[in-house]
Amino acid sequence: MKPGLKIGMTTELEVTVTPNMTAVFDGAEVHHLFSTSSLVQHLEWASRKLLEPYFDDNEEGMGYHIEVSHLMPTIPGMPVKLHATVCDIKDSKVVCEVEAFNPRGKIARGTVTQAVVAKSWLDNKIKEMALLHQLACEAEAALRKTASNSRANN
Length: 154
Hints:
It is built from two helices and seven strands. The protein is of the alpha+beta class.
């Protein structure tokens, strides 16, 4: 990482809750409120906003650990301010304390930890996972074909 990222540095992100940020499961809206998953996504973005200026050209950040309490509901149309503050830097991990507020008060608090990794390492991991997935799919298809042939011969 480039020098300069320090404990205590802070950033803010502001979003307006939209209908596509509500809690939806299996295609059905559970409630017309800012979902916890959308909230966590925005808290992670706020944390990343702090780190991005300090990435070297060969580095990338990845979510490593998230611990968030969702304290109060927020309806679509409401603005949400998200704050991230660097509270720890250890080896390749950067921990940010995060908070989110709607006009009525604090709606979330917690921490987001990001790991700073080499882009080449990440690219290799992605290729490795794609290959393993392809091999597993091919093995599964071969097993299905064998089972189908076995049933046809019986």
